[in-house]
Write a structure and sequence with these properties.
It holds the Pfam family SBP_bac_1. One of its GO terms (cellular component) is periplasmic space. It is found in: Periplasm. Its main location: periplasm. By secondary structure, the protein is of the alpha/beta class. It folds into two domains: about 200 residues, Periplasmic binding protein-like II (D-Maltodextrin-Binding Protein, domain 2), CATH 3.40.190.10; about 200 residues, D-Maltodextrin-Binding Protein, domain 2 (3-Layer(aba) Sandwich), CATH 3.40.190. The protein has 20 helices and nine strands. The strands form two sheets. A five-stranded mixed β-sheet has the order 2-1-3-9-4. The protein has a four-stranded mixed β-sheet with strand order 6-7-5-8. Helix 7 packs across helix 8 and helix 19 runs antiparallel to helix 20. It starts with 16 loop residues before the first helix and ends with a helix.
Length: about 425
């Protein structure tokens, strides 16, 4: 990809006040990046604005992923939609359906109309394949992509006399040794559907649903109540009864358990690296690949991404869309993506950004930070490990959360809970199919 520099203009620094901004095309960019991540998004927008004499990006935090997506949909219905909205990966099918109804301006078409030299092959295959249509056209721009890894407290593991686990049997053994050595909540995780059903399935090359996990057809049905996943969830529940596992909530709610040393083994996004590097000062931590369940597979397949992409909504002026295309070039440039990767833990979305990070010595100064990249590219994705594209999946994840929480509380066994999650989830798949067929 040829990524032109847009940082040469200096006159923008002297332009102040509303009169100056009135001369620029204004682009509304709604995102879901809070805290340190939001600060970097604001940094990118400010740097772009300073270097452009014709465009101004107004980056606005609209809450978490679900809140941001819901706000954008409501705004579109009211005719007040932003130009760009950040949508997490499980919203892809919903956004594609909206595209079929004319709401979306596909990125490949945006770049073509703007006359931008845009090469999708510059993006990492594991990232871009998630967001293409059946003709391999890119629908939204990859921005922040991550995958779950196993975070570990090396200091606690060393004190307990155990190695970093590579299998689920070893996770259980390590948790038992950690507990005996005074670690209160040895094992936990976040985003439990993503980490322990969606990625567990892909990592072991198990389909989560029919029709290539929803990529091939809206007629897909869930199959994650198979014996392998049921046994995996039941194992974790049994660990909970023994005091080896402590559920800490949905999303990243249990992050504090790991940071304060209550938990020594924690599965969640690679994107926690930047925050951990800043916040963890009392022990040495690291990350490693997801454990393998040797009862299911001899070796792992590949993990799948989380995070989000930038979707463009129809209904604005072409001059403003030219600014969107220009801004997309800017945030995709190796310099920006390498900075994003190195300061957050999200994977670099382009090969050039990965190469730049290597050239800058990042993986030598910050070892193991390429774990997520290695996981995603471990093997060529199969239909079971390419990703998931299910309609109404935001709501389905809520169902999975409810059923898993019933397991952790001891109210249901894993088989009952997953059977009910599949039944309830399939009802939402049929509802989505009916609305979009």
């Amino acid at each position: 990809m040829k990524l032109k520099s847009i940082l040469s203009a200096t006159t923008a620094f002297a332009m102040v006040g509303t009169t100056a901004f009135a001369e620029k095309a204004e682009v509304q960019f709604w995102h879901a990046m809070g805290g340190q991540l939001g600060e970097i998004v604001d940094k990118f927008a400010s740097e772009y604005n300073a270097g452009s004499d014709s465009c101004h990006i107004n980056a606005v935090y609209k809450g978490n992923y679900t809140e941001n997506m819901t706000a954008a949909i409501a705004a579109f219905r009211a005719g007040e939609q932003p130009h760009v909205v950040q949508v997490f990966e499980v919203g892809t099918a919903t956004m594609m359906a909206a595209g079929d109804k004319g709401a979306i301006y596909p990125v490949y078409k945006l770049m073509e109309d703007a006359g931008v030299d845009f090469d999708p092959s510059a993006y990492l295959p594991a990232v871009i394949s998630y967001y293409t249509d059946t003709d391999n056209n890119l629908l939204s721009l990859p921005f922040n992509s991550s995958t779950p890894v196993l975070w570990y407290n090396k200091t606690a593991l060393d004190a307990a006399g155990v190695d970093v686990p590579t299998t689920w049997d070893e996770v259980e053994e390590a948790a038992r040794a950690l507990k005996a050595n005074g670690v209160e909540k040895p094992f936990s995780f976040g985003w439990q559907s993503w980490s322990n059903i969606e990625n567990y399935s892909a990592w072991h090359n198990l389909p989560m649903g029919t029709e290539e996990n929803g990529f091939a057809s809206l007629k897909t049905e869930f199959s994650f109540n198979n014996d392998a996943v049921v046994n995996h969830i039941q194992r974790i529940a049994d660990m909970g009864k023994e005091g080896l596992f402590a559920y800490g909530g949905r999303r990243g709610d249990s992050r504090g358990q790991f940071v304060n040393g209550e938990t020594a083994l924690w599965i969640n996004s690679s994107a926690y690296y930047g925050g951990f590097k800043k916040d963890i000062t009392d022990f040495e931590f690291g990350q490693t690949m997801l454990p393998v369940d040797t009862a299911v597979a001899d070796k792992p397949q590949n993990s799948i991404i989380g995070g989000a992409t930038l979707w463009v909504l129809n209904g604005h002026e072409q001059a403003e869309y030219s600014c969107v295309a220009d801004f997309f070039q800017f945030v995709s440039a190796p310099e920006q993506q390498a900075y994003w990767h190195q300061n957050t833990g999200y994977v670099p979305i382009t090969t050039a950004a990965y190469d730049l990070s290597k050239e800058q010595g990042f993986y030598e100064s910050d070892p193991l930070t390429d774990t997520a990249i290695k996981q995603l590219s471990l093997n060529a994705p199969t239909p079971a490990s390419k990703g998931v594209r299910f309609g109404n999946f935001v709501q389905v994840r809520d169902i999975i959360n409810e059923e898993l929480e019933a397991v952790w509380a001891g109210d249901k066994d894993a088989k009952t809970a997953l059977d009910e999650a599949v039944e309830r989830g399939n009802a939402l798949l049929r509802k989505f199919e009916k609305a979009n067929d």
